Amino acid sequence: MMRFGWFKNQDNVVYSDVNEFADHFGKETGVQNFRRKLEDFRSHPVKEGILIKGKKRTTLKLFIPDLLFEDKSEKLPMGDTVWVYMGEYYPCHCVYWPETSDS
């Protein structure tokens, strides 16, 4: 069970740039095409999130806190982006997409 209070504790959250995070984490967990799965979920999120299974006996949950915890009056920092959850024994990754400038 995912508890809102657990995500409020900044010791449990790692903020990860998708460019530095996705490929390495996908290999580490055995999730093929992990970056594409992040992008697809970002484009078409569902309130309850989705589960992704890796080849290394790993299951990840992709979710967007603002959707999942929409009944809370309080919001999490960067709660409008994709988060990757593996359980309370591991840090949760808040994934962000850096803005690119064409200048």
Top keywords for this entry?
alpha+beta; five-stranded mixed sheet; 103 residues; 5 strands
Brief overview, please?
The chain is an alpha+beta fold and 103 residues long. Helix content is 30%, strand content 21%. The model has no long low-confidence stretch (mean pLDDT 93).
Structural notes for this entry:
With 103 residues, the chain is of the alpha+beta class. The chain has one domain. It contains four helices and five strands. It has a five-stranded mixed sheet with strand order 1-5-4-3-2. It is globular and about 35 Å long. The model has no long low-confidence stretch (mean pLDDT 93).
- Low-confidence parts lasting 5 or more residues at pLDDT below 50? none
Query: Biggest β-sheet, characterized?
Result: 5 strands, mixed
Radius of gyration computed on alpha carbons: 13 Å
Overall pLDDT: 93
What gross morphology would you assign?
globular
Compute the number of helices.
4
Order of helices and strands: HEHHEEHEE
Number of strands: 5
What is the distance, rounded to the nearest whole angstrom, between the alpha carbons of the first and last residues? Answer: 45 Å
Number of domains: 1
**Structural class given helices, strands, pairing?**
alpha+beta
Quaternary organization:
single chain
Biggest β-sheet: strands ordered side by side in the sheet: 1-5-4-3-2
Helix fraction, binned, reads: 25-40%
Beta-strand content bin: 15-25%
Outline the secondary-structure elements.
Elements: H1 4-8, E1 13-17, H2 18-29, H3 34-43, E2 50-53, E3 59-63, H4 65-68, E4 83-85, E5 92-96
Parallel strand pairs: 1-5
Antiparallel strand pairs: 2-3, 3-4, 4-5
